[in-house]
Amino acid sequence: MKPAILLTNDDGVYSAGLWAAYQALEPIAEVTIVAPAAQQSAVGRSISIFEPIRVHEVKLEGVKAIAVGGKPTDAVIIGLYALPIHPVLVVSGINIGENLSFESVMTSGTVGAALEASNQGTKAIAFSLQVEDQGDKFDDPRQSQRSFADAQRVVRDMVERLLARGFPKGLDVINVNIPSRVKGGYEITRLAHKLFHTGVEQRLDPRGRPYYWINGPLVEDAEEGTDVHAIRKGNISVTPVTLDCTAFGACETLRGLF
User: If you ran DSSP here, which 8-state letter would residue 205 be given?
Assistant: First the structure.
């Protein structure tokens, strides 16, 4: 029998990226799609604990999927505990837009879903595809006109290797970022510090009251060895991520202080 994979995302169950990942994985695994019913980008590991979670079945070109009225983490938890899937791996993506650096890993719903899966005992890999125009992240993910061909090849290749050889020890999530134009191969990377130069733009509504947009341009590049730099070179960034956020290097200093 084919191994079972739970496929999720944060762009919503109808996202073109999600279905591109399904097409890449379906020949090698029993894939069950459990994903948010609507767009849930940048919610990180938010979880719905103050309201019930509704689910319903949808079909796209005859393929069944479970749409979850909640966050990506909710979808993962529903998939792991409410459905008879028992996956050997959780795949999150293909996200439309890169998830690079400290800040994206902490805020990304795509990576958040993968972290939640691993925290619940099932290892996970997150896939994101770079967009050259950042405005593409805010377009309807159901209508994306971009090519997912390179990303599909990466998804298929990496998942096949993991299924054959097992998930590496010492990490919980593999965060994969695929350049919009792949020029090189895989590069094992560390997280860069920043992806955006964060800014705030103030505007006035028709009544003269201020409101704000959080915005800012992309960081042009980062140092050698980082995920940001790998993508800028056209390489596929593969970053090992751990759930343990403990700053071990500060423990002795804190013992002395307290």
Answer: -
